[in-house]
Amino acid sequence: MGERLMVVVGYEAAELLDIACVTTTLAMANGIGAPEVPYRVVLAGPGGTPLVCGSGLVLHSEQSLERLTGPLDTLIVSGGTGFERAASDTRLVGHVRRLARESRRVASVCTGAGVLAAAGLLDGRRATTHWRFARLLAEQHPNVAVDPAPIFVRDGHVYTAAGVTSALDLTLAFVEEDHGPELARQVARDLVVYLQRPGNQAQMSLFTAAAPARDDVVRALVEHIAAHPDDDLRAAALAARAGMTVRHLNRLFTQQVGRAPGRYVRQARTEAAAQLLASTTLPMSSVAKRCGFGSAEALRQAFTERFGIAPSRYRAAMRRD
Predict the structure, then answer these.
(1) Is 53 among the residues known to form the active site?
(2) How would you classify residue 110: left for phi > 0, otherwise alpha for psi between -120 and 50, otherwise beta?
(3) Catalytic residue (one of 21, 53, 110, 291)
(4) CA 160 from chain center: how many Å?
(5) Tens digit of pLDDT for each residue in 219-259?
(6) d(CA 147, CA 128)
(7) pTM of the prediction?
């Protein structure tokens, strides 16, 4: 009986969840489905030494990255706060490039895309990464078509996943490719995750919900902003609605939702626009008007600043099969 050798690459300050989401999903697939060709999962790191994750927990590498040879089924590079140092490590990058040539599939999770890009493995390809780092990846690697919207992207045999737990979605997609949808659904049920979340689902939809405000007045204003993004939502208008001074409003919003009213309103309007772009065919000018932007250009600037992608590109990505 053969095995599918799945190698997860870690490094100093890698994200533990990036690694565990992959390894646990594959282990569950082995245990639940007893597939004819099971997965053999190996954690590899520079020198085969213990890996201190970004959280401070230590993982023991099973193999030295330098001594590992193919053929591999899948090479998966994790992300983490140490990704920039890893991407600038020419030896590590060189071994990732070498092993990629000996792998059927190549993948990254979160900021691990920066390591693949440094190895030249994303040149000319569409790729994603954690939304917070998408602009940095695009600026550092202009030959990569960075799309910060999807949960994960497949371009040929190269896969890139967005932030952290999107590794679950990516690995479930691998299980489905390798063993069929029924096993993938069984594993998803045991993981208690959304079944077959589509790769082109927007990362934005995962974090648009603000933490509920404890103060009743702020909570009422937040609900009003969400329901009426096209209203007059300037700080003075909101303060008058709440019966308080602008100074007090600023203080309450900063305490309760972590940002000043003006910044919160701009974010809420931008996220409302994302919903309309994904769910309607309204022209950009109508989306802008409904969400309280003065013009389509004002919407474009706010959207790009918030999400690192133009609203037209976001709409196209959401409608891509």
Answers:
(1) no
(2) left
(3) 110
(4) 9
(5) 889 888 988 999 999 999 999 999 999 999 999 998 888 88
(6) 5
(7) 0.68
